[in-house]
Design a protein that fits this description.
Layout (H helix, E strand, L loop, with lengths): L2 H26 L5 H20 L4 H28 L7 H9 L8 H13 L3 H26 L3 H13 L1 H7 L5 H21 L2 H17 L4 H13 E2 L4 E2 L3 H20 L38 H17 L9 H23 L1 E2 L2 H21 L3 H20 L1 E2 L1 H8 L1
Antiparallel strand pairs: 1-2, 3-4
Helix pairs in contact: 1-2, 2-3, 3-6, 3-7, 4-5, 6-7, 6-9, 7-16, 9-10, 9-16, 10-11, 11-12, 11-15, 13-15, 14-16, 15-16
Length: 417
């Protein structure tokens, strides 16, 4: 075993040991209020510093500094929330998940099952579950950093892209709330990393792992299920031998069979797209927390049954999903903040995606197929700005990766130097 692998394994062992140790401490006090939570947060900040900076070169330290600062901000958000300031996305769905996991209401889904396991280990503490989400979100950033290092043409692009995911306001607020989004984002980050490893190295092992984790992601929220179809399309149309997308007659036949098989499976798992966003999964509309009044959009498209009209209005639904609330819908200061710090990020990303050419057109096409399928699902599934703001965080890693493979002249200049 070389020194690098030894250090990585040592960090993993430390993480497992500390997690088990903390589970016993939390178990001592089922309330796990600020008295026990804040000391453990401070302790975790110290060992997070060690895990991120021990034996790292200067460029890695800069990237890990971004992750560490993001970790600190998420901890501060959690402390404010525990103090009763009710920041971010807590309330509504998060209250429902906690009540369901503690058997106070009759409601169950896969995320509730995960919470029940966590509470069995550490006691029925909401603070524990929220802090667990922060830890998961930090691991997502570490994995996403590795993904960016696989695809970016220069260090600056890695740094900028990592900063976007690390400091996107909605992403940070979601990570400190009692919601399933951090778990889904974590699975998506692993899936993306393994998918790009398969794309570059033609190792089927990575594709299977990628497929597994996007399926786990859809297990927690079925809206991610169409990403499975996107990955399956990728393995059919991309040729590693010729390093490009090739579509033969056999390919078209395989795609047809794939779509038929997927539609059959999709029907068995739950019917129409909009059922995945039904009230049974979302106990309260989060737009109420924005104090924004009505943030519903495109109401006239909600009851459309005609397939031609669905096709016609799909681009508009997708546009509103990513960019809502639109500037003309900003009736209150809170909604204006959402527009400035959430919608504007997606506007910036998509503007760059379509403005600049990609240095890898095949990867861009494949990821656009995956993103288009997900955008269709969530575009029709979400019907208001609050809902859209939360659900698009699940897709943010895919959008940033597409943004990261853009090709600009200064990239070539720096690489030649």
């Amino acid at each position: 075993m070389n020194k690098t692998n030894f250090i990585i394994n040592l960090k993993v062992v430390i993480i497992i040991f500390l997690f088990v140790f903390e589970s016993f401490l939390f178990k001592l006090d089922d309330t796990a209020g600020l008295g026990i939570t804040i000391p453990l947060i401070i302790t975790n900040i110290f060992y997070a510093f060690f895990l991120l900076f021990y034996r790292c070169n200067s460029s890695e330290k800069k990237l890990n500094t971004v992750i560490f600062i993001s970790f600190l901000i998420r901890n501060v958000t959690l402390i404010f929330d525990l103090q009763g300031y009710n920041v971010g996305f807590n309330g509504g769905d998060s209250d429902g998940f906690y009540l369901a996991a503690t058997r106070q209401i009759d409601f169950h889904n896969h995320y509730v099952s995960l919470l029940e396991i966590l509470f069995a280990m550490m006691g029925e503490s909401r603070a524990v579950a929220q802090y667990f989400n922060i830890i998961v979100s930090v691991f997502s950033l570490v994995i996403f950093k590795k993904t960016l290092q696989l695809i970016c043409t220069n260090y600056k692009q890695v740094l900028v892209s990592l900063c976007i995911l690390s400091f996107a306001p909605a992403n940070m607020l979601v990570s400190s709330a009692l919601l399933r989004e951090p778990i889904i984002i974590f699975c998506n980050c692993i899936s993306l990393f393994c998918f790009i490893k398969w794309y570059k190295e033609n190792n089927i092992k990575y594709f299977l792992i990628s497929f597994l984790f996007v399926f786990i992601s859809s297990y927690f929220h079925s809206g991610m299920l169409l990403a499975v179809l996107g990955y399956a399309v990728a393995i059919v149309i991309y040729s590693h031998q010729y390093k490009k997308i090739i579509i033969y007659k056999q390919t078209l036949f395989s795609l047809l069979l794939l779509i038929v098989a997927f539609v059959g499976t999709y029907s068995l798992f739950g019917g129409s797209v909009t059922t995945y966003f039904d009230r049974i999964e979302h106990l309260e509309d989060i737009s109420d927390k924005l104090n924004a009044g009505s943030t519903d959009y495109l109401k006239f498209t909600n009851n459309i049954d005609s397939k031609p009209l669905i096709i016609l209005y799909t681009p508009l639904r997708i546009l509103y999903f990513y960019l809502s609330p639109m500037i003309w819908d900003c009736r209150t200061f809170n909604v204006l903040l959402v527009c400035l710090f959430s919608s504007s990020i997606y506007f910036f990303l998509f503007f760059n995606i379509f403005k600049y050419k990609s240095y890898d057109k095949n990867l861009k096409i494949i990821l656009l197929i995956v993103l288009l399928l997900l955008s269709f699902t969530y575009g029709w599934g979400c019907s208001n700005s609050g809902q859209a703001m939360r659900h698009r965080e699940k897709i943010l890693p895919f959008v940033i990766v597409l943004y990261s493979i853009k090709y600009r002249k200064y990239d070539l200049i720096k690489n030649n130097n």
